[in-house]
Amino acid sequence: MTPKESRLAKSIGLAVAAKRKQKGFTQGRLGEIIKVEPETISRIERGVSLSPISRLSDIADALNCPLGDLLRDGSPRVSDRALSLAAQLQTLTDADARLVAEVIEKLTGRLKKKA
Q1: How many C-beta atoms lie closer than 10 Å to residue 111's C-beta?
Q2: CA–CA separation, 23 vs 30, rounded Å?
Q3: Distance CA 76, CA 53 (A)
């Protein structure tokens, strides 16, 4: 695996693990659903292997989430992280979403001054 592929595998693996835990599944249960060994799920989550898109699609189906979430949530790309944050903001009340947005704006303003 190239360094870029390794980073991508780790990012996707973190996203898979987070979604799996949100769903309350063990690695064994997820493996059972998509018909692979728990070790395969472990390898994906640790970023040891870069799964084919068909397997990631099976995982997304089992976790009842869009495939794009697995690719975007773990992405190191700023635009992907922004989309992920926007999706998270949509789950909050309007007041809480405004509060989070204000905190982010203040924090980025301070970090820009520091740089």
Answers
A1: 9
A2: 10
A3: 18
